[in-house]
Amino acid sequence: MKKPELLAPAGDLERLKIALLYGADAVYLGGNMFNLRANANNLTEEELKEGVEFAHKLNKKIYITVNISMHNKELVKIKEYLITLDKLNVDAIIITDPAIIPIAKKYTNLTLHLSTQTSSLNKEAIEFWKNEGVERVVLARECTKEDIEDIKKNVDIELEVFIHGAMCASYSGRCVLSNFLTGRDANRGGCSQICRWDFDLYEGDNHLEGDKPFTFCTKDLSMAGFIPDLIKTGADSFKIEGRMRSAYYIATIVRTYRKIIDEYCQNPENYTYNVKYEQTLRRVANRDSITQFFNGDYSKDVQYYNGREEKTNQDFIGIVLDYDDKTKLAKVEQRNYFKKGDKIEVFGPNDEFALTVTDLYDEDLNPLEIVRHPKQIVYLKMPKPVKKDYMLKMC
Amino acid sequence: MNKITAIINNLEEAKEINDLVDAYIMPLKGLSINYHHTFSLEEIETALKLNKEIFVSVNKNIHNDELPKLKEALTKLTKLKISGIIFYDISIVNLKKKMTFKTPLVWAQEHLTTNYGTVNYWNEKGAQYAYLSSELTKREILEIKENSKSKLFVNIFGYLPMFTSRRHLVKNYVETFDLKENARPAKLSKEGNDYLIEDTKLGTTVYSSYILNATEEDFKNVDYLVFNSNFIETKDFKEVLTDYKNKKPNKYPKNLGFMFEDTIYKVK
Predict the structure, then answer these.
(1) Which residue from A30, A134, A176, B15 could staple onto A129, CB 3.0 to 4.6 Å apart?
(2) Which residues pair with A13 in a beta bridge?
(3) Confidence check on the interface: ipTM exceeds 0.90, yes or no
């Protein structure tokens, strides 16, 4: 049995490092051009260089999204950008627009992955892309378990599938609600997520009014309980969605799926799904989740009708910046309010423990009762050693 | 010269407007989406007697288990003297090579047909025609024409599809809240604008709130200008085509969509 790659999103350099440290085998991210999250922080050329070096030192990979559908004006700039990415030694680029293929082949040695934006759903389409020199296809989210198995059996190409996160309500690439309603180009990185807006639905003059307003959107995807099934399809890479998500979210999701994949692969015959992981994933999510099309379900049960009213998550209270072995004090940057007496959990990539906040100090080591300011630097006594990038959350 | 191309609601309509058009786009039943009406192979055969160019749209996303159905349809279609097959799913390009059929292909990936480089890429892969995205500016359209080898289709009249899902969004909503459906078609309303929404067996399509009406624009040597009659009465559609033929403005409000409105994608 081949262990699949765990692929995580990274909206910036901090999250890139967190994702890799917390167990991702590879990360995908955008540079400052040509990617579908134009409004994420994205990475400068210098940051990309640092990110690639960081990943390669850990024997991990970096994929760069070059996944917009170009207009003429972008077309004239693409060659130079591809050459830059090639020089940075990235492991692959993820493309939507096939105009990139001949340019990349002629001027670079870049490995090409095909984005889910192309809605690749069947073995004939995927065979076409293989013959064009594409090494991996990110399958459409509408693929079922049987589809993935059949495609894998018939085409010798790497397949990447989504396992977690928010999914488009449309066939990817076939939605320009954002263009029409807000003038922001969905297929060039400006998607304003109209699918989450509330609408009034009418049939003729009859207002069809349910308890909650009509929206396009679906529940999020979570494949946590179906990882063995997914591994058995032969899919090569398991992808987590969320380049706009926080470091805490990335750390938690990556770490959880890392454990699930490893536990199954170490002992597939005796594997049982640990429902505790379900609770962990649910705590960082702000919407309900479901397996979506994997099990062939596109009925009413996949719809999500809470509009944009999503739960905020204040579990994440801080991130460790440093630790002093002698004093046993962790230097922590605050992310949410906490105080002396709170029961918290500290976790790192392979470590977790609970504690009650007792010895708490400000930046000048004066005793402190409450940590109320965003990004406030505080010191906290730890019962055992921690490392930079460990996270603190409420129990 | 531009060829006037009509997307029609039925064959009766085609007879009404036949003198006013040069070509038809006929969506194939069961394998096309984002059209209000689709046609059987028999109807397409009948339409060929109108002596106009007929392009058949097979533009749905093809799921893996739909491949046998697609192959069967292509086998039959390519025996007809149609002018081209309009496709979205790339399986059709692969099958053209494998099945060695000669029927031309029209690359029509709706919102992704946005630059001349990609038009030329698909031309080299066997698609001699491209159907451009409605989210382009007129300047971009003319640039593509200038820099590409393919013959081009451009929408200039009608409602525009702007969202396509595999899910049945109206049905799902109605079932979730146990509502009673009455008359169709359905529409979505937001901030004073109404958007037609249509559930079919193949999924859901949502259309623009307005009728694109760029019939007074000069598209120079763009090959096929498309008039879409979906959700429009035949007599009104015929009037629009007649006015166009006579170089007169039609009765619908002028609406140029994105032709002079470049979309943005970075808001910072």
Answers:
(1) A134
(2) none
(3) yes
